[in-house]
């Protein structure tokens, strides 16, 4: 029996994108249910349907899983290649994935994900945001250059949980033209060209016009 993956509007829901990527990469048989986000925590349908009142929320083979990183970990149990094979490299990947889950608040607060927004730099960047972007750039660069040469994805030639967790960040870097290391810029372009990300963009564009939020 197919499971269910509850998502928020694809145009805006960065956390939904993270869980969705992991589910797709793991090949889980799920039906996707998308709920329009209303902003300001007013999406009551999600409150009723999700244990933590947020998206994404996965039901699969008797398991109920919420929080994007938990969904990624669940998917990696089914598809172990979602983490690097080497123990030490896997520890690095887990660390920066948890760092994304808990941190980079200035970027998330000032650079909201909107996959249909025309790329343009912010009019003003605070010291706090600039420091956060610099930390982000170092974090991603260190992963990409861990082996001494740039890798296609954060930890090798295939997407891992780390790429799932940072995929919305790639979109933000592109949308707000954030200043990052050239190595990171190449990874951003690779992520944006990835077929699953392209599919997400297309699905976002196909959502009802009335789902668009007013800024």
TrEMBL record:
<dbReference type="InterPro" id="IPR004045">
    <property type="entry name" value="Glutathione_S-Trfase_N"/>
</dbReference>
<dbReference type="InterPro" id="IPR040079">
    <property type="entry name" value="Glutathione_S-Trfase"/>
</dbReference>
<dbReference type="Pfam" id="PF13410">
    <property type="entry name" value="GST_C_2"/>
</dbReference>
<feature type="domain" description="GST C-terminal">
    <location>
        <begin position="86"/>
        <end position="215"/>
    </location>
</feature>
<dbReference type="InterPro" id="IPR036249">
    <property type="entry name" value="Thioredoxin-like_sf"/>
</dbReference>
<dbReference type="Pfam" id="PF13409">
    <property type="entry name" value="GST_N_2"/>
</dbReference>
<dbReference type="InterPro" id="IPR010987">
    <property type="entry name" value="Glutathione-S-Trfase_C-like"/>
</dbReference>
<protein>
    <submittedName>
        <fullName>Glutathione S-transferase</fullName>
    </submittedName>
</protein>
<dbReference type="InterPro" id="IPR036282">
    <property type="entry name" value="Glutathione-S-Trfase_C_sf"/>
</dbReference>
<feature type="domain" description="GST N-terminal">
    <location>
        <begin position="3"/>
        <end position="83"/>
    </location>
</feature>
